[in-house]
Design brief:
single chain; 322 residues; alpha/beta; Quinone Oxidoreductase, Chain A, domain 1; Rossmann fold; seven-stranded mixed beta sheet; five-stranded parallel beta sheet; 8 helices; 14 strands; 26% helix
């Protein structure tokens, strides 16, 4: 029996419940591809799944989906980038050697050397060819942050000249949302902490407000779209004021407004924008596989800038600048 290394979560709890073990290497079916994973990332969703530290109202439905007393799949993790190592006889989209990235959805399993996936989009995941000009670690930021940013910005139907406010601009989805909104021709106001103001300006934000300063409320305008990238659990006086800072037809959207859509077509669009230099994914820190506990602790602090990636397997890929 071939084995692989994996990080398993056999019960809900603090980061220390995560353990590295040897597990059975998955065998792809005829309609699946086998992906050798080179990088994954630690998201807030991973934190929720591992800890189950969520409001009681959401805990019961979440545990019914994920697992009652522990994750149904002990190998958690939703984001991956890697290489196609094997293709089933009924697959068509990919070939051996393709560099891919995506999300595993409810199937989880990204905290491991290998993952089997179907080519078609479903709640069990989606995957696409990753950008040629970024690293595997950067690709994990692009996959998760990109899908979130694109899905919710698209709800605003942004046109050139629109005013857009991104609350939580320094997070994984926020950093991409700022860049994508600018690409669409919007005037972007970004909200973040004081330590990230200059960084967010470098991404193209026209104005930056500090959510820790109540006086920032006086600088709010009327926006065609306000996007909350931190979720409804996190709030501030400025965030409360943003709800009323809308034009007559303005929209307020939050990443908590429904499930993340796992769509490879959207990943393909993200790939195009990254390869053309319009969007650049941001990693705050990169941890080694055996530093998963430290990585979870860092993300749980809530002050990361962009994405936190995990190197699962090392490789020195040759990037291509088109």
């Amino acid at each position: 029996m071939e084995t692989m290394k994996a990080i398993i979560c056999t019960k809900y709890g603090p980061p220390e419940v995560l353990k590295i073990k040897q597990c059975k290497k998955p065998i792809p079916r005829r309609d699946e591809v086998l992906i050798k994973i080179y990088a994954t990332s630690v998201t807030n969703s991973d934190i929720f799944i591992r800890s189950s530290n969520i409001p009681l109202l959401f805990m019961i439905p979440m545990r019914l989906m994920i697992g009652i007393n522990r994750p149904r799949n002990p190998i958690i993790g939703e984001i991956f980038s890697g290489e196609i190592e094997f293709t089933g006889s009924e697959t068509e989209r990919f070939k051996v050697g393709d560099r891919v990235y995506g999300l595993t959805g409810f199937s989880l399993g990204a905290y491991a050397d290998y993952k089997c996936m179907k080519e078609i989009d479903s709640k069990q995941g989606c995957l696409a060819i990753m950008p040629r000009n970024i690293s595997f670690e950067e690709a994990t930021s692009a996959a998760y942050g990109g899908l979130l940013a694109f899905q919710y910005l698209e709800r605003g139907d942004i046109s050139p000249g629109h005013k857009v406010l991104i609350y939580g601009a320094s997070g994984t989805s926020g950093t991409i949302a700022v860049q994508y909104a600018k690409h669409l021709g919007a005037t972007v106001t970004a909200v973040c902490g004081s330590s990230n103001i200059e960084f967010i300006k470098s991404l193209g934000a026209d104005k930056v407000l500090d959510y820790t300063i109540n006086e920032s409320i006086t600088y709010l305008e009327k926006y065609d779209l306000v996007m909350d990238t931190v979720g409804k659990r996190k709030t501030s006086e400025l965030k409360k004021a943003c709800v009323d800072a809308l034009t007559i037809n303005g929209k307020y959207v939050s990443i908590d407004d429904g499930a993340l859509l796992l769509q490879s077509d959207r990943l393909n669009k993200i790939t195009e924008l990254i390869e053309s230099g319009i969007i650049k994914p941001v990693n705050d820190r990169i941890y080694h596989f055996d530093q998963i506990i430290e990585a979870h602790k860092y993300v749980e602090m809530g002050h990361k800038k962009g994405n936190v990636a995990i190197t699962v397997n090392k490789k020195n890929p040759t990037t291509v600048t088109a």
